[in-house]
């Protein structure tokens, strides 16, 4: 069905407006309208014109309108000679013509204008043929028919081509909204079915394997980036194998955040490796959780766009995740605060959040925690400060990092029992990186050694934390030219790394 349009739907010229004001079929109105139709047809793109011809037969209607126009003009001239007044100038008010009274002689109607198909010759009397009112009715009917055809033609000539298929919003623009909706569905379902609760230790209850898996992936990335590709890829393969078991048995609240972090870990180790992990996850979720599961839908979008293309939208996606949890748990939930810090740091590391925004976000959390140390404890406050140092180090702000580390170091030395061993090992690691960037070799080597000693004391020589610290110490010794020491450390690293990988594979089995 052809859509009904009004004059305001189309652009008009001054000539066409004058034509409408004067009346299309009175005086020179018809010629003005037909002339305007000629101009509109000439302005059409030839290809567009051919399209209209094929779809609507417009050119044939145009010829019909011209033919009717000529017949109308001839009829008006005959009526004028016989003393008739033409139809009203307002084309909407076309009806019976106003006829001047008086004795006149007219030609039979059949000799001048064709009659309506509803009128049969046998039913028409001679008196009806000579009746001026009948002539006016016939002319008015023809004028109304011609007006309808001409108006349709004018509207079609000015209307834009119809799109043969619906235009969809690009996936890249729909991604944040679709992912936010999926995240909300996921969190609501998990809380309402009591899979998650609001206790402060929910991460330990629900995601021990997820935290271990993320840490192993991070260590594997570091080993690959140091050039030990074979050793690093063994752990990468184990992480791929473990993931199915994790999402089947746990589905902790931080699963989305941790999976995105690992995706970018893999991307840093190699573009093809990152893309491979995204494809693997996108195919695994529908199998394990079902195609309609919110996480399956999220990873369908991420896989379609690619992990690199979603980088500008990471903040919106993960902010929606954090807000959905905050509504349920509140801002004073300790585990959620840890994930908030991890979220900001990871987004900055992977290019999804500017430096100033990341700094402001973490500084606000540091101030809030420091204002209520009794609730948050010293470890949480110090952890937030160390995350701020991490932002400085990764942004190359070595002076700012060194100043904040000096303050943290004084506090740890003053109350060593107030901070757990992992807070201290992170402090030594960040201090080593900062001293290395500043070119202070002795201070950097001392910090790497202190980190290794702290891990060795806490968890033993074959734990992944200790082996990771050993690898960092080996790399820096090699970098500053202590090759013999570095070779010895490398041998010990590979011995420990085999144990770490075997232990991880056994957990997967």
Structure in words:
By secondary structure, the chain is mainly α. Among the domains are: 7-158, no CATH class; 173-324. It has 22 helices and no strands. The chain has helices at 14-22, 29-43, 46-56, 58-81, 126-129, 132-158, 171-192, 202-206, 208-225, 229-249, 255-269, 271-289, 294-305, 314-329, 334-349, 355-370, 373-394, 398-414, 421-438, 441-459, 464-479, 483-508. α9 (208-225) runs antiparallel to α10 (229-249), α10 packs parallel to α12 and α17 runs antiparallel to α18. The longest helix has 27 residues, at 132-158. The protein is elongated. The two termini are 65 Å apart. Mean pLDDT is 74; it is low at 1-49, 86-130, 153-158 and 202-206. Residues 1-28, 49-74, 110-133 are annotated as: Disordered. Residues 116-126 have a biased composition (Low complexity).
Instruction: Describe the largest sheet.
Output: none
Order of helical and strand elements: HHHHHHHHHHHHHHHHHHHHHH
Shape label: elongated
**Count of helices?**
22
Low-pLDDT residue intervals, each spanning 5 or more residues: 1-49, 86-130, 153-158, 202-206
The strand count comes to 0
Question: For the residues shown, what is the average pLDDT?
Answer: 74
Strand content: under 5%
Broad structural category? mainly alpha
Termini distance?
65 Å
Helix content: over 70%
- The radius of gyration computed from the alpha-carbon positions, rounded to a whole number of angstroms, is 41 Å
